Amino acid sequence: MLFLWAFPGMAHAEPRSINVPRGTLIQSLPLLGRQAGVSISVADARLWQIRVKPVRGTMEAEQALARMLAGTDARAVRVSATSWRIERRPPKAPAVRPQARPPQSSAPPPAQAPPAPIPELPPAPDIVVTASKIQTPYAKYAGVATLLDGGDLAFGGERGTESILSRMATVSSTHLGSGRNKLFIRGIADSSFTGPTQATVGQYLGDIRMSYNAPDPDLRLYDMERVEVLEGPQGTLYGAGSMGGIIRMMPNAPNPRAVSLTASAGVSLTQHGDPGGDIAMTANIPLGDDGHALRLVGYSISEGGYIDNPLLGQSDVNRTTIRGGRGTLRLDAGENWTVDLGGIYQRIKADDAQYTDRNAPPLTRRSLVEQGASARYGAATLVVSKDWDELHFQSSNAFVDHHLSERFDASMSEDMPRAFDQHNDTRMIASENRLSRPYRDGLGWVIGASFIDNDTRQTRAYGYEVERYAITGVTNRITEITGYGEVTVELLRNLVATAGLRYTHARLGGKGEDVTPLAATTGRAITAKRTEEDFLPSVSLLANLTENVTLYTRYQEGFRPGGLSINGNFVQHFRNDHVKTLEAGVRFGRKGETPFDAVLSVSHSRWRDIQADFVDANGFPTTANIGDGKITSISGALALRPLKGLSLELGAVYNKSRVTHISPTLDMSAVRFGGYIMNDSPSVTISPIARLGRIPNVASHAVRGSVSYATFLGDEDFRVRGWANYIGPSRLGIGPVLGEGQGDYIDTGLAARLGNERRGLSLTVTNLFDSRGNRFALGTPFVPGSAGYLTPLRPRSVRLGVDVSF
Question: What gap in Å lies between CA 615 and CA 566, rounded to an integer?
Fold first, then answer.
């Protein structure tokens, strides 16, 4: 008995777009399973080599399987709502010819053996969490894992990370601008600036780590199979920088069996702003008959501006352009060895900032400086893998080059333009090698080792347009060597335990950039190389109480290494921080198999030596360990499928976070309050706890909901999705200077598509009610006496798109 499991990010009992080429069953069936959202088993190994027909169109799994197997001696038998079995068709009964008399026989006829019983199939898991590194079925995974289908993310027009944010209540962003944002999960947030601190969310393209201490590259999600989001910490498997969790984007792999070409284009109109447009293309090219293939993706996007600057006589100043692509060459090296050579490139250019003045007319800002930004991301990747009967080996390697340039207005008056420029250059070499046994028959495990060498150089300049001078910057270097292991075992029937441990040895160093000789001499001891060691244990327990009720509890830790930051003209050292999280949750129903499924989780985190950014006495951002904190998070998600083709989803999160203890090394006299030093203002007294408040940039609560419907209009497929998201209030950052309120707004949208698998016409409307809101209150921290800033939602926008496939 052989089994094939194929699971998409989200399974729905509704028509889906299917595009499976002609081939053998072993080639075509995995594609159909993923695209249709079903699990399929094959009872007879001899059926794998039969030739099956191509399937193209929007249809349910039953219709797709019937078309694929038409004309063969195989048939599909439904096992459950989302699982099927492929078996050989029973032979036709032979025609019986009448005989004049029965044949004579001296011996009685032999007794016929009873028919062999049909073997019972094991229950099919609904989702496989590949980010667990041991291919853990979702039903056995103790934690919150959200899997988003790549086609759903691109539906109605690709929006990058924004597509993920619109579908998840537990993921948030700073909204500084594309390529500049910091992402947060489950209330683990540190600061608003792009500084030397490592990210709290790990981002991966496949198994390639995308960055170490850089902002979200905001890669466009074209041609993605799915995106997996694991809430954190995820320190045991993913190490430093996964305190909040990980986001893993899985692109479609090259297909050596079929040539394909898909293209999409759209034009958009933004109310109160300029028009925009986008175009993208994906090509899959088999190379010979030896299993080699090349897959290429390219795109260009222009988003119209909508912010006016009357001080310079300019309108719609914040146009953003995004151009990029990626490619993967897959080589079949024989004996189940596979080699993937890849490359990624993307460039983002923003003509100006997207914030407005708080007390100005809507969508207006008075600034003497054009605050443009540019981000460039490039990577070269090599992935080597091999499969045995029960083992999988994978080596993932990458070289990453990431550059970010930002400009902030620092004008003291309306007749003296002055700017602050910041440049971050990051180069990273990352390599991970692991051997795993995918979870099967109650056992799964993984052991691995990784190496990371990361170098980030931050330089800064300040002054007038014709008289700019360099100010102190910093370079951070880290070399990290890690070993880890994790095992999942079924202790008793329906009782699964997981335990793991990670050991990390990190060597840190750095130096000041553009420092005075005196400051350099003073800081030599600070910038000297040093080492850190961390052990990150994890343990979890999961119990399937009934077929539709699962309970779990989980303990996990995460950390970020220390580093160097700038304070005035000097370089200072900040320590590593560490988070410990205890989580418990309950799940109801089975995703895609029952008309109803839901999940509820509660987590409590203690965060030691929080690394955070604030504004120092000179008005510049700096980084330090501010103290300890605690975060309680309650999140839930609900999915309903009351009718064929109709699905409703609802998600909500509540976060309560506080800084509970101030670090004794934090010099509160250096924290600026509205342009003044508090210690020099004896008439004002504020306690240190009141100065810091809750952890920044995470809404106290958020609710997201969506409705999707798919049907047929004549011979065409019609699909529509609407969504509404409420983002609750939050604070910009640490201390009163960055203590501005933000959030408390509603974002809405509607997307529809009419067509088939080869062509389609789509219409998307975002911000249906043209609301303003305040997504991010930073603006610029360098203008004293300002009334504050707002980052509004993009005004109501309409996109008309077309897509074709060949």
Answer: 11
In DSSP terms, 31 is beta-bridged to none
Q: What pLDDT sits at residue 669?
A: 46
Tens of pLDDT, residue by residue over 378-434, are 999 999 999 988 899 999 999 999 999 999 998 877 678 999 999 999 999 999 999
- Please tell me the total count of domains within the chain: 2
Q: For the domain that residue 35 is a member of, what is the CATH number?
A: 3.55.50.30
Cβ 120 vs Cβ 633: under 8 Å: no
Give the pLDDT mean for 531-557.
Answer: 95
Sorted by sequence, the CB contacts under 8 Å of residue 177 that are 6+ apart come out as: 320, 350, 353, 354, 373
Ranges 381-385, 552-556, 620-624: which has the least confidence: 620-624
The rounded distance, in Å, linking the Cα atoms of 478 and 531 is 9
**What's at 136, amino acid-wise?**
T
Integer Cα distance of 256 and 287 in angstroms:
7
Q: Which residue has the tokens 């080869």?
A: 758
CA dist., res. 511 & res. 409, Å (int): 27
Please check whether residue 721 lies inside any domain of the structure. yes
pTM higher than 0.85: no
CB contact at 8 A, 244 and 233: yes
Residue 200 lies inside a defined structural domain of this protein: no
Please compute the mean of the pLDDT values over residues 652-659 and round it to a whole number.
90
In whole angstroms, give the CA distance from residue 686 to residue 144: 39
| The pLDDT value given to residue 2 | 40
Whether 259 is covered by a domain: the verdict is yes
Contact 612, 621 (CB under 8 A): no
Neighbours of 618 (CB within 10 A): 14
Overall average pLDDT of the 719-740 stretch: 81
Residue 305 burial (10 A CB sphere; 0-12, 13-18, 19+) = buried
Cβ atoms < 10 Å from Cβ of 8: 24
- What is the chain's length? 806
The per-residue pLDDT for 667 is 55
Q: What is the pLDDT of residues 491-526, one digit of tens each?
A: 999 999 999 999 999 999 888 888 766 555 555 556
Q: How many CA atoms lie within 13 A of 83 on its CB side?
A: 18
- Cα–Cα distance for residue pair 491/707, rounded to 1 Å: 40
Q: Tell me if residue 479 falls in helix, strand or coil.
A: strand
Last residue of a domain, one of 40, 69, 88: 88
Q: Let me know if residue 452 belongs to a domain.
A: yes
Residues 6+ apart with CB under 8 A from 679: 668, 669
Q: Which of 618, 610, 703, 714 is nearest to 665 (CA)?
A: 610
Contact (CB, 8 A) for 172 and 165: yes
- The secondary structure of 288-351 as a DSSP string is TTTTEEEEEEEEEEEE----BBGGGTB-S---EEEEEEEEEEEEEEETTEEEEEEEEEEEEEES
- CATH, residue 613: 2.40.170.20
Q: Would you say 617 and 677 are in contact if contact means Cβ atoms under 8 Å apart?
A: yes
Tell me the average pLDDT across 81-99. 64
Q: How far apart are CA 429 and CA 724, in angstroms?
A: 40
**Hey, what's the torsion of the CAs at 95, 101, 107, 108, to 10 degrees?**
60
The answer to whether residues 182 and 216 touch, using CB atoms and an 8 Å cutoff, is yes
Angle of helix 61-69 relative to helix 25-36, nearest 10 degrees, comes to: 170
Helix/strand/coil (H/E/C) assignment for every residue in 539-604 = EEEEEEEECCEEEEEEEEEEEECCEEEEECCEEEEECCEEEEEEEEEEEECCCCCCCEEEEEEEEE
DSSP state letters, 166-210: TT-SSEEE--S-TTT--EEETTB---SS--SSPPSEEEEETTEE-
The mean predicted confidence, pLDDT, of the chain is 85
Single residue among 28, 62, 88 that ends a domain in this structure: 88
User: Residue 506 is part of which domain span?
Assistant: 249-278+288-324+333-364+371-805
